[in-house]
Fold these 4 entries.
Entry 1:
Amino acid sequence: KKILILALNYAFCFGFEIALYTSLYNFIIDKYKLSYRTSYNIPIIYAIVNLIGRPLGGLLSDYNFQYNSLQKKIKSSIVITFLLGVSILFYTFYILNLKCQNYCFDNIDIKAFIILFIIILLCNINEGTIFGLFPHLTNNLGFSAGLISSIGLLGSVIGNLLFDTNIKNLGLYFFGFGNIFMVLLLIIYLL
């Protein structure tokens, strides 16, 4: 049961990240009217955050276990999941409704891209904490890693379907509220 909770957490996190990367290109072209080349490069820049964020999440997880306890390790994952959900909702409710006015550079709303960078960083840190946490909850490491990864990919399939609907920001609402819901499940089943 605990591994399934972590797998769902990973689906709302990794699934969001992959769905975002595959949808961001068209979103940038539609919203900001940037060139195809620039619109192609921006998701690549965000993907590079993986090189920083996941190891940071793993370090955070290892630090909390080494100097504190497994409970502290779980709490750090809960806090990161909460911050991720809140930042996605903030991006959805606030940033996407702004028109490019004071903080624009070539029709790009810089605040929106900075907050998106923070969201992706939090997402990767959370992924690192999840993979730092699951070995303490099961003896079936190979199966659990495969299950968590595959459910994470399922989250991206669902995310892409939601991002492709004509309902405004449905995918963002799903992942924002989904991460907040995951905080409740993590508290109930892991603490």
Entry 2:
Amino acid sequence: TTIMKRIAFSLLLLVSALLVVTSGCDKVKDLASFDVRTNLPDYKFTIDSATVSPALKMGGTEVLLGYFPAVVNIDSVFSHYGVDKADIENSSFTMVQLTIQSPEGVTFDWLSSARIVVASSPTLAGGVQVAHTATFSSGSSTITFIVDETGINNMITNGVFYVGIYGILSGPLPVQTVGLALQSQIVYTVNPL
């Protein structure tokens, strides 16, 4: 009977200890996770009025202004933080800005709206919108996008994804070619395994 009480008490202690340890694992994992902010390289490109002008004739038709591959070297990030394996969570864009670089004095008065789409495919098939414009001031040479709360975990994990800049023109380009630069930043949570 005393042996049975000791065994029962020992089992109770063991079960209690297991409950504390397993509930504590999630807390330890939460403490070990961390956010990483990454500025994607500036994407510089030009648009030609001959290429985008047909969209004006169609009235309000969206046109692809430019696209580029974005590379996130996850292995390098893991190595920098001393992590062997991890899950990526809560990834999204935190900032997107489009600026006219040339010629000087040109503004976005020819653009009605714009949006940013990302996809796993270079054709942008199956892409998801991550940012869009609201109304912007006439005479602006920089547009700051409103960032959508769109998760891109699988694209970050894959290391390469494609960013497309779409726009609806409100008028012709004021010059033959316009030089643009897209600046953007992403954030993601690394949960070490």
Entry 3:
Amino acid sequence: HVPFYEEYCKCCYRAMTPAVAEIDSVVDSSVLSLLSVTLNKKIAQCLSKMHLGAYVEKCETESFVQEHLSILLDKISVDFLSSLPMEYAPVLAKNIAQFCIYSFISNMALIRPLGENGKLRVTQDLADSELCLEQFVMNSGSKESLSQINDGKPYAELRAARRMLFWNGLDGRNTTANDIYKGLIKEVWLTS
């Protein structure tokens, strides 16, 4: 009696697998991707605030990430991720985390002038964003850590940005293009 039931369950599972895959595909393309785009726009708006003086030398704020980004990610986690089924929440969280890393670095790279104090605060915010995003991804129920998303490429870029901030290969006025090239190819952050 029991072996027949187990065999019947296995047969049903095999028969339903293509339908479940199709439903997942529709949810991913029609729901999650649109929600991801909408939430990523909110993140882009949040990150654009760093151009309002977050890293100038005499800025009074402690941490841009703690004041802006972590609050938004917590809100997204509570308002959106918690209401999604467990198989979809990690997918959305990983998409948002990846976008957040690339957007943070892109915005950070455009900040000028960036003095030593600003560089130190950016470095602290890179570390804060790493912790904040790791917590965001793990709270979504993901089995992957931040360093495993998209084969670790966004995480590697996040880590490389920290080292890139203090590269001084363009500081010398008499440095030739060949010398700059030789210095660049030796840098770990460029090849990671």
Entry 4:
Amino acid sequence: ATLPTEDKIALTISGTGAFEGLDQSATYKSLTLGEGVAWEVTIDEDGTVSQPWTASSLTIDATAQSPILLTVSGTVGEDPIQLPNFKAADKDKILLLTVGLQLVEAEDGEGLAVQETPREVGIIHWNGVQEGLWWGKQNWLLGEAATTFLNGDTVVFNKEDAAVTLDKNAVVAGVYVTNNVAITGEKTLIA
């Protein structure tokens, strides 16, 4: 089926392969990203952000059980680059698959941006000394130094009877378990 490409059309897109047969050159009134959508953003050398679709507004379906899978290609430096139409409130509904980048709140406090991560990804070991949370706490060791998890890290659970709460969506290069580990939470872990 061919859909109209007028700027008065509102689209809701769900599932993988959801973009097949749709006119990507059109500007839509609104676009809602639903369950399991893979969204790709390209950043040019001058910082211009290109997305697969142009829409006056972009929302993420609040009822979606799986996160939006976001891939970013192009040039991203130390300074954050704002992603048009993405909202800071949607950060936990997005899983950034691009290693070496992280989602941050934009300067305006309402949008989302991407920037380089503070360190290279590596092999990190579970320490779990701060509330047992996967993200945001220095519950990991990189060598002897405490660190936080970055998407793309390889994680090792060698601490006896580790209890971990996956509090946000995460992408790992690998998971190695040498002792009992209980991972709880209703987020997505992709290896």
